[in-house]
Amino acid sequence: MIPVPQFSGQTVAVLGLARSGLAAALSLAAGGAEVAAWDDAEARRAEAVAAGVPVSDLSELDWTGCAALVLSPGIPDLYPAPNPIAAAARIADCPIICDVDLLARAKPDARYIGITGTNGKSTTSALVGHILSAAGSPNQVGGNIGVPALELTDIDEAGAYVLELSSYQLERTPSLKPDIAVLLNITPDHLDRHGGIDGYVAAKRMIFDHPGPGGHAIVGVEDGASRGIGLELMVRGAHKIVPISGSARAAGGVYGEAGILIDDMEYKQTTVCDLKPVAALPGTHNWQNAAAAYAVARLQGIDPETIAAAIATFPGLPHRQEIVGAIGSVLYVNDSKATNSQAAAKALDCYDAIYWIAGGKFKEENLDAIQPSFARMRGAYLIGDAAARFEAIIGAAAPVHQCGDLETAVTRAHAAAQDDMAGEGDVGVVLLSPACASFDQFDNFEARGDAFRGLVQALEGATP
Questions:
Q1: Does 77 score more than 80 pLDDT?
Q2: pTM higher than the cut 0.85
Q3: Domains and their CATH numbers in the chain
Q4: What is the dihedral sign for C-alpha 24, 52, 16, 89?
Q5: Is the N or C terminus of the chain more exposed, i.e. has fewer CB atoms within 10 Å?
């Protein structure tokens, strides 16, 4: 835990006492703040009290005497409806921040690498940490990737905090000044939380609002919104810009060309390594992630040979195109983190003979990004709230099977794949890449992916 002394002797409100909120309350208290904490869930309030954090109803707080409201990233503020606690704080000109902002205040002289994007930010953050560790460069990886910012540990001046940053966090992190800021991509997501696509793009752009001294901006060039932000940064002139791509040349940057990683940061188009054999990084989207991580590492002073060797040993992350089993000529891939159609499309692009398991709580208007993959689907095995809607969209473009739940989908996809592939001499893929949030049937995407992994392991155990 990292204490936050900047609010010593002052009242700070904390709303939301899940892992990051509880860590924030404890860090503030350790720094001498008077903490007023609340969570609507009784169990979380009880956990906070057991940890030594006092709880009080924030609807009764005198906001004129409050130095800040630490609002959990998971709690909406302005959209889809104004949060009454946040509204009261705003009326009193009380700053609304999150735990990442507290880290930046507590460690203002630390080096920060901030990574955001609609898709790929967890993989890129983990890969950056993996490369830095392989090179002997001290680092701590946290933020949206799962370890709350204030549960990280102290790091010396030669090291860096690698922070995965969601759009929710970026809206509440005015104190963060990344030395290296990475924007991978922007596609429509979380639009209800940001009042539409313009609000979502504006939130992502915030990673560049306060550059550290000599700050670098690593910017994806494969979508219009990101390219627009890159051009805006060029005009502004506060960053040194490194463009990245997984599929096209990026002059002056780093890119993947047919799976070959190219370093053009010095305009020499130097071949770094072949990414195609790296099982944890399949597809052009992951080649862009690798390009971003390579650029970060180069800016950290690591040589290309060391970076290439580290990329080759990257183990990947759970729930991101994670190969959880192989039975006969069929691979079983857990891509539960694909909670939108763009992310699912990127996974689908990597395989032929696909038995696609999809569905859940759909956050979008269509499946346009996935339509090119319909022809390579041997079947779509649909679950959850979106199942009927997905069937209507897919129509006759691919065989559709209404399964209801994940267990039924895995059982039916497995049986079909085993029957088909046994006589073909080809490789089939049972792919969980839902294009939906999980909350209709699971607590989160991790629980959904863990369930898929367990079902596959049971199939492996039952297979002679």
A1: yes
A2: yes
A3: 5-97 (3.40.50.720), 103-312 (3.40.1190.10), 322-462 (3.90.190.20)
A4: negative
A5: C
